[in-house]
Amino acid sequence: MNTLRFFARRTAFYLFTAWAAITINFFLPRFMKGDPISAYLARNQGRVSPEAAESLRILFGLNTDKSLLRQYADYWGLMFSGDLGRSLSRGLTPVTDVISVALPWTIGLVGIATILSFVIGTSLGALVGWRRGSRADILVPISTFFSTVPYFWMGLIAIAVFATGLGWFPASHAYGRGTQPGWSLQFVGEVIQHGTLPALTIVIASLGGWILGMRNMMVTILDEDYVTVAQAKGLPARRVLTRYAARNAVLPQIQSFALALGFIVGGTLVMELVFSYPGVGKLLLDATNAKDYPLMQGLFLVITLTVLVANILADVAYAVLDPRTRQTEA
């Protein structure tokens, strides 16, 4: 009964959060100065007739005949039908097609880098916390230092050393110029080669937070009575580390990891700018500069829903690993 009540409360909370986020997603761009049609006409002065401009305003729902609330209702109807509109800055291409092109690049690169960073950082943090006071503690200030370095400089240094200097990796783009995208070994090899350097910079930049967080939780958990009792029983150190200490210390990390996974879809804008990598972050920046409402709303919608789904999965994992959560929430 407590379990059902827990999931019912969380479901209601996330449904309300999704409604609020989608509502803000609709109204916020319309409160900005200007509109996509005006920006488009400014870039194409003299090449668009008044009749064509009016047709574009009607197509994008910017004509004055419809009230804002009516546009809001139409937006929900189109969204449920899978129609996110057409991107004015991308030649009236459907928003879903534009996002579907950029999304795999972001998920593939940033997703893998985030998962690697979490696994490596959490494992190292558990070992450092278990061996607190040893030489392993040197990992904390070293990794923290790299986390404080602005990513812009880290990316440029990585390009200067490993791309320009040593020539180990390409300096930019997701694959070689002139290469035809496909599932050929050549294309896949180029994608891996081009993505290795930006992925490594993401891992190094985010490793310090995972190590420090897990190390501090391990130090706290090791003082708990159940860990002391497990050690007093003569259990192997490896079992005490994995089954008792690390299992409980990792719980707060899961929530942070879920948020990190959710924001993967948003991309790493600075990384995409430094490495000229095609992704959602750069696409969102271009849509904002062009005041492309449909594309902005589509990107925000995908990011919002991804964050919500990631949090739901984190709640489920948290409830499975720690039954006390279900009892407290219920």
TrEMBL record:
Annotated signal sequence range: none
Highest taxon, organism lineage: Bacteria
Predominant place of localization: membrane
Subcellular location: Cell membrane; Membrane
Membrane topology: Multi-pass membrane protein
PANTHER family recorded: OLIGOPEPTIDE TRANSPORT SYSTEM PERMEASE PROTEIN
Protein name: Peptide/nickel transport system permease protein
Protein's organism: Xylanimonas ulmi
